[in-house]
Amino acid sequence: MISVHDAVTMILETITPQAGERVGLLEAGGRILAEEIRSEREVPPFANSAMDGYAVRWDDIQHATATDPTSLSVLEVIQAGAVPIQAVMIGTASKIMTGAVMPHGADTVVRIEDTEEYEGHVRIKRSEFSGTHVRASGEDIHRGQVVLDKGRVLRPADIGLLASVGRSLVLVHQRPRVAILSTGNELAEVDEALRPGQIVNSNAYTLAAAVREVGGIPVPLVIARDTLAEIRAALGEAARHDVVLSTGGVSVGDFDFVKAAMDELGMHRLFWQVAQRPGKPLTFGLLRERPYFGLPGNPVSALVCFYLYVRPALRRMMGHTKLFPPVVSATVGEDLPKAKGLTEFVRCRLTLKDGHYTAHSTGTQSSGVLSSLSLGEGLMIGPAEYPLLPKGMHIKVLILDGDEFAGSDAPF
Ligand code: AMP
Ligand code: MG
User: How high is the mean pLDDT of the chain?
Assistant: First the structure.
């Protein structure tokens, strides 16, 4: 039996980022860049007006005030998307719209609100300073500049940057295809009537949602029954995908054939059993370099192992560098029993008071009780050496429900 820390380390040592694929910008949001992006252009590509107003020479208008305006003759109206025809020379101005190209000779824009038009002329009633309301060419991005680094998680502003530098396709890490294999004679599909002794194969749905939440592509497979031959065949089939997750059949029962099937397939098994609760029977191996996670069958154990081990691995495969869930410090809300010698992950709910978190157990911690995982947003990490988690103890809590931090119920 190995420690949680060793299990994470051993798994991640075997994981490398997926190859890149070119995707269109509409599909690139949330993906991770597998290339560095340099701009081949200036953004904006030309000096332009930031306001609707008049393009002028600062020298002409620097003394203009409301009581002593400067009059200029108007050469033309420059619309956004058009190219100016005339150069602005002493005593002249061109009317210009936001985003339109600055005409030669002009260095400053005066806002419409500070002017008055009359008979082919304009009265300038205010001067701010030289160059006001002009956006210089390359003000946002220069040619040759690195716009986005490799490993960047593409957010909407990043996608806009890529568009403005003219990149319609970008290289991002492939999303891993994750096979999900459920094992067990007792399992029925969600829409089947349950016969005596049967339960719904909930793990397949839980894990498919978890894989999708991380950004992977879940591939649920048909249920494998508890025979060595069937599990071996199913595992062999599953190993065509980038990652394999199985649930069940890794304990010490008479019909737990997953480990034996792994061995028969020639899998390199790195470990079996981790000193933790829930999730102790976890096993991990490699078949043709593909990671294989043998998750326990109990619904909570399977999902907790997913968060602890599978999720970081999938994130590394997708090119992320921040692999682990966020951790907050909290105080234990009530005395909690725990197994000595095992790291215990206690399903909990966090309350925040005066900037301080308290963690309360969500109830029964049996590894079959999924509702207590559904109720909470985190997992307290009870250190292996403790026989009990006393009320008031400082403890780390893994945050599983990102929404708790991504959203607020109060307006700002
Ligand atoms: P096992 O690890 O195969 O001994 O299974 C442990 C417990 O998890 C048993 O009570 C199983 O019925 C249950 N279990 C196994 N697989 C699933 C599944 N796919 N969905 C829901 N429960 C499961
Ligand atoms: Mg089983």
Answer: 96
Q: Taking the model in full, what pTM does it have?
A: 0.93
Q: Which SS3 state, helix, strand or coil, does residue 111 take? A: strand
Distances (CA, A) of 285 to 13, 236, 259, 402: 12, 13, 10, 29
278 Cβ inside 6 Å of ligand 1: no
Alpha carbon distance 347, 142 (integer Å): 50
Mean pLDDT of 353-370: 96
Nearest CA among 333, 30, 355 for reference residue 346: 333
On whether residue 308 sits in a domain, the answer given is yes
CATH of the domain at 356: 2.40.340.10
Decide: 79 in ligand 1 pocket, CB within 6 A. no
| Residue to probe by mutation, ligand 1, list 203, 207, 228, most atoms within 8 Å of CB | 203
Tokens, residue 382:
């009870």
Element (H, E) at 108: strand 108-111
d(C-alpha 355, C-alpha 405), whole Å:
14
- Tell me whether residue 228 is in a domain: yes
Q: What is the pLDDT of residues 222-281, one digit of tens each?
A: 999 999 999 999 999 999 999 999 999 999 999 999 999 999 999 999 999 999 999 999
Same domain? For 100 and 155 the reply is no
Nearest CA to ligand 1 atom 10: 298
Distance, CA 8 to ligand 2 centroid (Å)?
24
Q: Is residue 291 in contact with ligand 1, taking CB distance under 6 Å?
A: no
CA dist 383 and 187 (Å) reads: 34
Is 199 close to ligand 1, i.e. is its CB under 6 Å away? yes
Contact 234, 247 (CB under 8 A): no
- Proximal ligand: closest to the CA of 199: 1
Q: Is 294 in the pocket of ligand 1 (CB under 6 A)?
A: no
Reading the block at residue 385, the tokens are 């050496």
Give the distance (Å) from ligand 1 centre to CA of residue 317: 28
**Cα–Cα distances in Å, from 272 out to 14, 109, 237, 259, 277?**
16, 72, 22, 9, 14
- Which amino acid, 257? F
Quick one: DSSP state of residue 58?
Answer: H
Residue 9 lies in a domain: yes
